[in-house]
């Protein structure tokens, strides 16, 4: 397996092409977040910048279902208005002025009061806004602008920094106190005097001539409002996945929640169980049917970046009108699982909706315990419902413990009428320790321990599948931490923890679940997957027994045979490759290209040049010219002393792939000898 990574240089801002410089420094300068700006400056091509700009506006579009982006249209209307009306007082364009900045951020005020032509006060404007509380602003507030000295550009007024004296002609530099200035301004312009102390209506009455510090905080919140209007995670995801997802997906990142847990199979194999809950599900419609195809690409790598396991899953959703109504009311949870060998890893899950061209992703660090002796406890899974089966099914299903199915959700939020279902496992407890061991559950809030429950291990049927049900009727709404411990002779031997919330709401909306069902743990597919994982991290001695067992149980699988043959090649047992791959060569249907290549390389390692060349020629006849096959064939021609044929093969390879410096040097050296 191979992985690719690239360091993305950050181009200097001055090197941005003019249209993108204008977009960044003028058109969206007040509404782009620091993270979005940072990501934009890291992009290295105009194509990437165009795609990012599309994503920037899309993640601000209030109604994705309509062709027009209302936010974008309104933003450019505000920008045009600011340039037309607010650049007349000075030399700067309107968008650079204080009034232009506030107008672009907040839009049209609900009311404007102007104070002009007064002999004792400088020209001023008081803008009043309301109904902006969704942005974390007060229900109603003022923004004040004034002209210091009575000429030039209007400036944003601060009660704390400027005070009422800044609005009085002849007093702006006077050490007059705030109270005296306020009383003087109150006599001249009562309404202007009130906003000179506070921008928040009603607050000025309690200030007694002292300016409001909360007004400056209000101004700061106004100027950072655009950053709170969008979930900027999409920008980071754009940078991470711009080279991974197809172009049509790049602007369409949607958020998602996830839950990832480890569960040990009775056969001793750890499986990664996961839930993905996209923020929304977009579907297509044909006649009275609704459909969506979600494609998952999963990858597991070591902390150093070595690929360990890659997999792809397809989730096809076909919904009738009734099911679609449910999908509109409830989130979709995708439950799935896969086996993983012991070690520390980085997991990445990328899911694409092929109907809407949307994508979402999840990244997580995993630590899978090894087989070494000692106590192990899996992290508790907190479910909202259990389904008990009459008997243990042969197939595997995510979040199933024996004959009990645990239904869980990423957000781990429960109502007081719910019963929380705890599921976890304990492994490695010596039989002689059972009588003196107990399981302890501690539920705690920020105020301390709320409840503690203990269970004697001797009274439990087993420890491999532990399930505890806890009614929440007397749990006050709060954020809880659950600590599960195994105590032996009163001493904590191993523990795990999880967090959850009990809400004030009467009920929590539960998802509709799409769950994959996998073959039983005795299926050879798991030997194949585990053997391949061992091979990818270089532990070939552990890989081969697994792969051999997989091939023995499923001899008709070309994939199983191919991976085992590759392992044999790695340890130099080339003689085992031919009998292993022989059943897949010479059939009416051509073998996989990789099988021809492996078999040819095995012949080459054994110096059986003619058989190797014949195998490579067969591959070319079926699949056409390929640089890898031509390179291998060239080595065989050279091995049997046919330099001319070797040069012909290698020169053709260089035509197909010129970026082979080592091969080019070899070719030039051979030509020099002729």
Question: Major sheet, described briefly?
Answer: 5 strands, antiparallel
- Contiguous low-pLDDT stretches (5 residues minimum) are 1-13
Average pLDDT, rounded to a whole number, is: 91
- Return the structural class: alpha+beta
- The third-level CATH topology of the largest domain is Immunoglobulin-like
Radius of gyration, taken over Cα atoms and rounded to an integer in Å = 34 Å
**Tally of discrete structural domains:** 2
Share of residues in strands: 25-35%
CATH architecture of the largest domain: Sandwich
Helix content: 25-40%
How many DSSP-defined strands?
A: 25
Approximate shape: globular
By CATH's scheme, which homologous superfamily of the largest domain applies? Macroglobulin (MG2) domain
Provide a brief overview of the structure:
The protein is α+β, with helices and mostly antiparallel strands. Strands 7, 8, 9, 11 and 12 form a five-stranded antiparallel beta sheet that branches. Strands 15-16-14-18-22 form a five-stranded antiparallel beta sheet, with no helix packed on it. Strands 17-24-23-20-21 form a five-stranded mixed beta sheet, with no helix packed on it. It is globular.
């Amino acid at each position: 397996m191979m992985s690719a990574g690239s360091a993305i240089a950050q181009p200097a801002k001055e090197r941005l092409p003019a249209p993108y410089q204008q977009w960044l420094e003028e058109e969206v300068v007040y509404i782009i977040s620091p993270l979005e700006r940072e990501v934009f400056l890291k992009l290295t091509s105009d194509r990437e910048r165009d795609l990012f700009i599309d994503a920037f506006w899309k993640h601000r579009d209030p109604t994705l279902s309509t062709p027009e982006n209302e936010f974008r249209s309104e933003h450019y209307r505000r920008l045009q208005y600011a340039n037309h009306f607010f650049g007349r007082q000075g030399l700067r364009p309107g968008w650079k002025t204080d009034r232009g900045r506030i107008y672009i951020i907040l839009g049209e005020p609900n009311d404007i009061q102007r104070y002009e032509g007064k002999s004792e006060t400088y020209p001023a404007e008081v803008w009043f806004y309301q109904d902006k509380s969704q942005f974390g602003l007060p229900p109603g507030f003022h923004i004040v602008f004034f002209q210091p000295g009575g000429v030039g550009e209007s400036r944003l007024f601060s009660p704390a920094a400027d005070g009422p004296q800044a609005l009085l002609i002849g007093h702006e530099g006077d050490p007059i106190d705030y109270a005296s200035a306020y009383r003087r301004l109150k006599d001249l312009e009562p309404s202007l005097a009130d906003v000179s102390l506070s921008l928040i209506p009603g607050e000025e009455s309690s200030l007694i001539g002292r300016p409001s510090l909360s007004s400056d905080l209000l101004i700061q919140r106004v100027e950072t409002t655009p950053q709170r209007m969008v979930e900027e995670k999409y920008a980071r995801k754009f940078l991470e996945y711009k080279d991974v997802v197809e172009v049509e997906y790049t602007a369409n990142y949607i958020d998602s929640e996830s839950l990832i847990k480890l569960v040990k199979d009775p056969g001793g194999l750890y499986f990664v169980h996961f839930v993905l809950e996209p923020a929304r599900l977009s579907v297509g419609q044909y006649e009275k049917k609704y459909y969506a195809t979600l494609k998952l690409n999963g990858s597991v790598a070591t902390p150093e970046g070595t690929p360990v396991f890659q997999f792809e899953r397809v989730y096809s959703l076909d919904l009738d009108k009734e099911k679609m109504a449910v999908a509109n009311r409830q989130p979709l949870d995708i439950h799935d699982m896969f086996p993983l060998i012991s070690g520390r890893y980085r997991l990445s899950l990328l899911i694409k909706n092929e109907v809407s061209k949307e994508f979402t992703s999840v990244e997580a660090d995993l630590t899978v315990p090894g087989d070494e002796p000692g106590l192990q406890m899996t992290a508790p899974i907190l479910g909202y419902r259990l389904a008990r089966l009459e008997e243990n099914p042969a197939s595997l299903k995510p979040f199933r413990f024996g004959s009990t199915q645990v239904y869980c959700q990423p957000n781990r939020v429960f109502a007081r009428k719910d019963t929380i279902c705890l599921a976890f496992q304990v492994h490695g407890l010596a039989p002689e320790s059972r009588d003196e061991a107990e399981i302890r559950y501690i539920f705690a809030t920020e105020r301390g321990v709320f409840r503690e429950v203990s269970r004697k291990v001797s009274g439990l049927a087993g420890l491999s599948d532990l399930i505890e049900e806890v009614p929440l009727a007397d749990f006050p709404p709060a954020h809880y931490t659950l600590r599960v411990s195994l105590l032996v002779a009163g001493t904590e031997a191993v523990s795990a923890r999880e967090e959850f919330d009990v809400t004030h709401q009467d009920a929590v909306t539960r998802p509709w679940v799409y769950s994959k069902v996998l073959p039983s743990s005795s299926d050879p597919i798991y030997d194949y997957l585990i053997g391949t994982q061992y091979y990818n991290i270089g532990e070939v001695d552990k890989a081969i027994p697994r792969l051999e067992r997989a091939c023995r149980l499923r001899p008709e699988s070309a994939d199983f045979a191919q991976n085992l043959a590759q392992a044999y090649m790695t340890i130099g047992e080339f003689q085992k490759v031919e009998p292993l791959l022989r059943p897949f060569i010479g059939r009416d249907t051509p073998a996989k290209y990789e099988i021809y290549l492996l078999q040819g390389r095995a012949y080459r390692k054994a110096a059986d040049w003619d058989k190797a060349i014949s195998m490579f020629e067969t591959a070319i006849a079926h699949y056409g010219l390929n640089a890898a096959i031509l390179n291998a064939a060239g080595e065989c021609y050279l091995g049997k002393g046919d330099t001319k044929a070797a040069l012909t093969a290698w020169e053709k390879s260089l035509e197909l792939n010129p970026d082979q410096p080592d091969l080019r040097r070899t070719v030039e050296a051979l030509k020099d000898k002729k």
